Amino acid sequence: MGDGEILAWTEAERLSFADLLESLAERDWSAKTLCTEWTVHAMAGHLAQTTRNRLKDTLVGIVKAKGNWDRMNTDQAIAYAARYTPAELVAQIREDAGSARRSPGAKPVDPLADVLIHGQDVARPLGIDRPMPEKPSIAALEHLLVSPFWGAKKRCRDLRLIATDSGWSGGAGTEEIRGPLADLLLAVSGRSAGLATLTGPGAALLAAR
Asked: What's the pLDDT at 55?
């Protein structure tokens, strides 16, 4: 799995995300996502902005957020989305779908994980079934388990993850947790929406963290 393949997966997911947004009713754009501080409109702003941010934007944003990266992301997405209509944001996501630009310190797989997870963040509260492609999902899961930026490394300590819809398993722990790839990815990224289908002794441990 090389950087070119990861970027191709990311491009496909961004285009699919744009399709999802384009299919929504006008009222859906004000709905809350699984990221509770973001509406669908703000989430679209985040995905559009990530390929357009300059280093200067990140530096200014992190200073304003007093070093809190999550707060910077939240505030910048809301501010960016307010500048554009839904149609304009969809067009930006499509235009930049193949962009390799990413945040300082991010790995090539980080934007892939971001768009996979955020696709579910939008779809699930709206009752939309959004299948997650197997190979990209596995790549994202394996990255989250070792990345210092997502919190999953600490969240999943002592756990062994086993996908029930593929032959994948991962994690260095002994407490097993089983479930579909999409729900595992959501759960290890800290979203409670992924916990409902998970089974095994590790499920309770993950839910408590």
From this structure: 67
